[in-house]
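Do me a favour: review this protein, sequence plus structure tokens, and tell me how the chain folds. Record follows.
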Amino acid sequence: MSNDNQIEISHSFMALFIERGRLKPGASQGFVTSRYELCEDMACMLAEHAQTLFSQGLSGEEVLTRCHQGFLAESSVLTENEAVWVIHRLAELLGWTPRDLEDK
């Protein structure tokens, strides 16, 4: 795969693929890039829906919780770590403060 890709992968996303004690991801650049594109697209697509739920009276935390629960369904295409990243990215896009999803 060529390095001509103009996508800049966030450090927080890249960290999902770096094992403790390592400096480089344990997956290929192409794989990480494709997963990043999927997750970033997912967060962007959810932003309008999340804002609609919020405007209907749900709290931001409840909206994020519901979205996160949807990603944890058995048929989800995201890993658990990716799902947490998407929810944090969604919160960032909406200007909301993300909560700690790992404890839920």
In short: The two ends are 38 Å apart (CA to CA). The chain has one domain: 11-19+28-103. The CA atoms of residues 47 and 60 lie 11 Å apart. Residues 11-19+28-103 form one domain.
